[in-house]
Specification:
Layout lengths: L30 E6 L4 E6 L4 E6 L6 E6 L19 H9 L4 H10 L10 E3 L8 E6 L4 E6 L16 E6 L18 E7 L4 E6 L4 E6 L6 E7 H5 L8 H8 L11 E3 L5 E8 L13 H6 L8 H9 L13 E3 L2 E4 L5 E4 L8 E6 L3 E6 L16 E6 L8 E4 L8 E2 L6 H5 L5 E4 L2 E4 L7 H10 L1 E5 L4 E6 L3 H8 L12 E7 L5 E11 L2 E6 L2 H14 L4 E4 L5 E6 L3 H8 E2 L15 E6 L6 E5 L8 E6 L4 H12 L4 E3 L2 H10 L36 H9 L3 E8 L10 E4 L2 E12 L4 E9 L8 E6 L5 E8 L9 H4 L1
Parallel strand pairs: 14-21, 25-36
Antiparallel strand pairs: 1-8, 2-7, 3-6, 3-8, 4-5, 4-7, 9-20, 10-19, 11-18, 11-20, 12-15, 12-19, 13-14, 14-18, 16-17, 21-22, 23-24, 25-31, 26-29, 26-30, 27-28, 28-29, 31-35, 32-33, 33-34, 34-35, 37-40, 37-42, 38-39, 38-41, 39-40, 41-42
Helix pairs in contact: 1-2, 8-13, 11-12
């Protein structure tokens, strides 16, 4: 008998799967994170023994702490500290009446707190480095008022106010499930817990709000509702997701223009007001017994049966399976038409806020599916709160700059009041509401105004970062591709920013305000975060602080833009006038005269036309907007939205993040190789070696296309030579000036020569083709004579 060797054994028990998730998704009972925005204030309850860690996120931001005893007395001893200030910054912020300050003042008054002679604890200094921490422990119960004080930043200054983060580890966690329930948005009318694997029904009157919360994160809930007046007449018309998708033109409704859900008679039942998640499902039914029976789990509890039980006393007939809006459910349809699902995107405390458009009977489940990733393999509760229709909640979608960031709700720019009087057609862009088109014009009229006269548009969502300190030049020389040593004060340069492998992080402009003062303006928050990370990694003495909320900007573009700026802007003798201002230069100015609102005006733009950008503090936004119209009304000025902006930038061959470039695209492949001076910039910079290699051995080229068809072409459409795909469209539009469809595209270098015939694939790429020809990248004014004129 032959000896059979035993198989090789891996010793020990099995190891758990390694899964990396953002910190906010990790379950830590009693642990809280509070972010105080620059020039903001928060107030929170303290319990004896609570451990507090205060972090100076970006550096240089002072903190003011006011500790309050349970009886309302100001007493720094609650934190074991001694006062060293009089809370001047906190008092100025509360008196200023900024966003949320009214509610905070009411909260302070309700607790009998008198700040008139308050002693405060001031922490951190102007030179405190980013990431610095201060730790303390609450020695008694009470309250903490924490401020990140700061005055309005003048556009030419760099004294921006930046966030502070407070980490709290509760000594006695008030557990509800695994996480503390977030504070209500207002005084609740109804506070209802939907226990795991159950459902609850409730009534909401017209105009009231419904907040549906995921308590522990990654827990789905099915939502359904009925017109209560129809139910009274025996008509059971539930919310109909097919009708809603069709009328809204979206896979599921969301805050903004496409926000409503309807029944089968097209009666609007609810609208979505706020959403902190942004991923839901309106295709699949609520889980039912048949689903579990078919996968081998007969008798499994399910949402449809739970709905039937919850609605039994509401006069609703039981159904074997329920149509529903499946909130927090993460589904998609793959290339083969299969409906697939994965873990939800929702995190602890995430919510959807609805508004009832008529009296409704509602039902919510806490989905019991533990057989798939649909609930993150962890079943938990859902919580429902309703609020009076007298409350005011703005439309908003959550925005997270990084996976670890706290959600930021959609904001209004400094010019929103003026813009909203001209159009309601707005969409969410990078955390702000921006106009798509204007009611009195439309995209084509706005386009021609830019090409022939002048337009004004809101570009406030651009991310601004102040880079200061003795090593500021060295830092910027290391992180961007352009040569900062050749940049004079008052000059602006367009640059790429790349990872080590040569892929682009962002594109943007660098303003040099002084010897050790720079301003980076890009499209993404992460670019500033990344610059700060490089400074910390190298130990450079430079601060990188966000000023996006301190500085909003309008672009005035078109042939008449210089005359408009000439009329409205005053400059001191040591600053360039508008007539003296060269291309990619800026001037420090005032609105109307030497005592007007402070401005920075740059001769830059994103339209391919002569143009300027005006930067101001948000408090001066309305005055600046009004002045543009006062001085441009007789010069054919029109407002411009994002739709027309996309048209003019594509014609000019100007690139857009997420469409024309990504972290898999280097600057050469994005058509901006001129931003990488490999021969003239002798200093090293991040990505240099990779960019040398990629330039010497290119695989793709960024080109222009002219398409011999009026059929619409879209981002992502495939490009073919014969059967083979050789590239893809990145941006496309129908050019009013050229009278034809044009596009920007990335094509294999073997087929990228000007004049090459190519085909745009539609449908599956093979059944329908549009003939096209490769042309130079810029369809309009390729030598950029107009913006330089």
């Amino acid at each position: 008998m032959l000896d059979t060797p035993y198989p090789q054994i891996i010793p020990g028990p099995p190891r758990p799967s390694r899964i990396l998730t953002p910190q906010a998704l990790q379950r830590h009972p009693g642990r809280e994170r509070h972010v105080v925005p620059g020039a903001g204030v928060v107030m929170l309850r303290l319990g004896q023994g609570d451990r507090l860690t205060l972090i100076n996120d970006e550096g240089g931001q002072p903190a003011e702490l006011v500790a309050v005893a349970p009886d309302g007395r100001i007493d720094a001893a609650v934190l074991g500290l001694a006062p060293n200030g009089q809370a001047e910054g906190l008092k100025a912020l509360l008196a200023g009446g900024g966003s949320g300050m009214g509610a905070l003042r009411r909260g302070i008054a309700a607790r009998g707190i008198d700040l008139a002679s308050a002693g405060s604890v001031r922490l951190f200094a102007p030179d405190t480095p980013a990431g610095a921490r201060a730790e303390m422990t609450a020695l008694d119960d009470g309250w903490l008022i924490l401020a990140a004080p700061g005055l309005p930043m003048a556009p030419e200054a760099q004294d921006t106010a930046t966030p502070l983060t407070l980490l709290v580890q509760r000594s006695k966690p008030a557990l509800i499930g695994k996480h503390d329930l977030p504070d209500p948005l207002a005084d609740p009318v109804l506070d209802l817990r939907v226990k795991s694997a159950t459902a609850e029904s409730y009534f909401v009157k017209a105009g009231d709000y419904i907040q549906i919360l995921d308590v522990d994160g990654r827990q789905c809930t099915d939502f359904q509702c009925f017109d209560a007046r129809k139910l009274d007449r025996g008509i059971e018309h539930a919310l109909d997701v097919t009708t809603s998708r069709t009328l809204m033109g979206h896979a599921y409704s969301m805050p903004g223009l496409h926000s409503k859900y309807f029944d089968q008679d097209w009666v609007p039942l609810v609208e979505v007001v706020q959403d902190t998640v942004g991923r839901h499902d309106a295709f699949a039914m609520a889980c039912a017994s048949k689903y579990y029976d078919d996968i081998g789990y007969p008798g499994h509890v399910n949402c449809s049966d739970n709905f039937n039980a919850a609605l039994k006393d509401r006069g609703v007939t039981a159904r074997p399976g329920w149509m529903a809006v499946n909130m927090f459910f993460n589904t998609n349809i793959d290339a083969h038409g299969v409906l697939i699902s994965d873990e939800p995107w929702s995190r602890p405390g995430d919510y959807v806020l609805l508004r009832a458009l008529t009296d409704i009977v509602c039902v919510n489940s806490a989905c019991p599916d533990d057989t798939s990733p649909a609930n993150g393999w962890y079943l938990s509760d859902i919580h429902v709160r309703t609020y009076s229709g007298a409350e005011k909640f703005s439309r908003a979608i959550a925005w997270r700059p990084t996976p670890d960031s706290e959600p930021k709700m959609t904001k209004e720019t400094a010019f929103h009041d003026r813009i909203s009087a001209r159009t309601r057609n707005v969409l969410e862009y990078k955390g702000y509401w921006l106009p798509q088109t204007y009611s009195q014009n439309g995209a084509i009229e706005e386009y021609w105004a830019c090409r022939e006269k002048a337009v004004v548009l809101d570009l406030s969502p651009l991310r601004k970062f102040e880079v200061t300190g003795p090593d500021a030049e060295a830092l910027m020389q290391w992180v961007v591709t352009r040569d900062m040593k050749k940049l004079s004060a008052g000059q602006v340069v367009y640059s790429a920013m790349c990872y080590e492998h040569g892929g682009m992080i962002d594109d943007g402009t660098v303003f040099r305000l002084g010897k050790d003062q720079f301003r980076w303006i890009g499209g993404d928050d992460y670019s500033g975060i990344w610059i700060r990370e490089q400074a910390e990694k190298l130990g450079l003495r430079a601060m990188v602080r966000s000023s996006t909320d301190q500085m909003h900007n309008l672009a005035v573009q078109g042939p008449n833009s210089r005359e408009i700026l000439r009329r409205m802007v005053w400059t001191a003798p040591h600053q360039p006038t508008i007539d003296e201002l060269g291309w990619f230069r800026f001037t420090v100015a005032r609105l109307g005269g030497p005592s007007g609102a402070p401005l920075v005006v740059s001769r830059t733009g994103y339209t391919g036309e002569l143009g300027f950008e005006i930067f101001c503090h948000p408090k001066d936004g309305s005055a600046v907007y009004d002045a543009v119209w006062e001085h441009g009304g007789d010069l054919g000025l029109k407002p411009m939205g994002l739709a027309a902006l996309d048209m003019v930038r594509i014609e000019a061959g100007l690139i857009f993040a997420g469409y024309d470039f990504s972290d898999q695209t280097d600057p050469f492949e994005a058509g901006i190789g001129f931003t990488v001076p490999l021969k003239s910039k002798t200093d090293d910079f991040i990505g240099r070696e990779a960019l040398i290699r990629r330039k010497d051995t290119p695989s793709r080229k960024f080109v222009g296309l002219e398409i011999d068809s009026n059929v619409d072409v879209h981002h992502g459409d495939c490009l073919h030579i014969g059967r083979a795909q050789v590239g893809e469209v990145t941006s496309s539009m129908r050019s009013p000036l050229l009278g034809k469809n044009i596009a920007l595209a990335r094509v294999d270098v073997a087929h990228a020569d000007v004049g090459t015939a190519i085909e745009v694939g539609k449908l599956d790429g093979q059944q329908k083709r549009l003939p096209a020809v490769i042309v130079p990248l810029s369809h309009y004014d390729p030598k950029k004579t107009r913006p330089q004129g």
